[in-house]
Amino acid sequence: MRSRLQLVYLLPIISMLTYGLNSMHVWSWPSLDMASGIMNWYNPNYIINDLYTDCFTDMNARYFFMQVLTPFKLMGMNWYDSIYIANLLNVALLPVAFFLGLKCFVKKSGEKLLFIAIAIISLKPKLFILTTIGWWSSFSYDFHPSVFSVSCLFIGSYLFSKKRSLKILGFIFVSISTFIHPLFSFYGACFLFILWTKKDYQTGIFIILTVILNCLIFISITNAVDLSLREYYNYFVWHFPEHYIPSRFVGWNGYWYIPFIINIFIIIACTVDSLFRKDGYEKIGVMFLFSYAGSLLFQYLFVELYPTIKLILAAAPIRYTSFGYFISAILLILKSQRWMGNYTYNFLPNRNLIHNISNKFLIVVSVLIFIFYSVNHPRPIDLISNDELDVVNWIKNNTEEGSIIISPPNKFLKTTIPLLTGRGTYYGNGVPFDSTCIEDNYTRYVNVYGKTTSSNGRMKAQEFYDKLDKGSLNMLKPKADYIITENSNFSDKSIKVNDKFYIYKINND
Questions:
Q1: Is 6 in contact with 345 (CB distance < 8 Å)?
Q2: Which of 96, 301, 315, 324 lies most in the core, judged by the most C-beta atoms within 10 Å?
Q3: Which helix (H) or strand (E) holds 406?
């Protein structure tokens, strides 16, 4: 009996080639938002006097996600290669996970459409970002716990659709998903629950209860939520309004509501069609409509207007909209099955050897692509500009171990310096994952960048930074040792590193 080419085997080839041919890498944000902690895990005491690194302690919010690197660490790989290869593996698995997780709910006639929907965003992952609201993404090629969590969740959901012996494995994958990123696991489970209500209500309930139980365990053993309501608002909502405050979302150059309206239109149109045709999908449509629109409504009411409930502030319901693309896609696919009937699609003609080995051949190709890019990928030194490389070399050769460097607000130097020099930065690029360090981190930000926010404050932060003088730097608490500037007006004792950057030693006058 000849086997039909399975569409799923094409997806890792598409995603890995897209990743490699477009020279994508993990020397970027947010892939490196926990890199200094990983670096110190691999090389203890390499980075000294860096708040961001020192706060990366056991049982913080990212502790369990970091464990995905354990096999690579045990094999003796360096920290950057470990991150790159782990991410490449997830790049290969992410579209496969979505395909398998969603194919449980479509007929054979809908698998081709599902493949096309996932292949499109696998080829152009930035297109998916355009469908999101508040820059929350459940599908990206970044080394980030959200996408790793979603991969495990959808694979787990797929395994629940198989025979009983695989359901235990499904439970394990769903549990791993929750510990990697509890919130994305929860919102992904809500999305899947709505689909499972049509096929197997009990399975949907079991998945979401599993996620909730593991969320409670995660909260009890980590310090991820040891903040007051005021602290959550000040350190997250205020600092990242493009993620939390609907009136200040910045997607689509401020027209963030365009993908929201498009998704709402598709959901309503599919639901109304089901109501008239009575095809059984109207309940799913109604639940998607209320959950998708409700996530924005809750975010607006209880985060922007009346921020009085810590659980909602921390959970950020708007994260659920990161599944908007898949909500619209699955509804359109379910509706399309009606006129496609039992039509199925074979990618290759039914021809002897080629047809029989096609699936195995694609697996071999995927493995070879994975090996090739695992060995041949850009290194950090190749990914920073010459100007930044000059700064890195100057710091390594002219500063003492334990020195603390202040960097311009809009430069990647805040991440580059600790990773490539071992020196500390006054303010790191992000929020520490240990709640005990967040207030200190906030104070440092205000000291050197002012009380600005990242959606409208990048230019203002630079203006505040440019106005720092010797007196304000000498009075900094906590103190810093050096500051990087982009002009020579700061002090006649500023050292010119290149045509773009100057470095001044604080308390040198």
A1: no
A2: 324
A3: strand 404-406
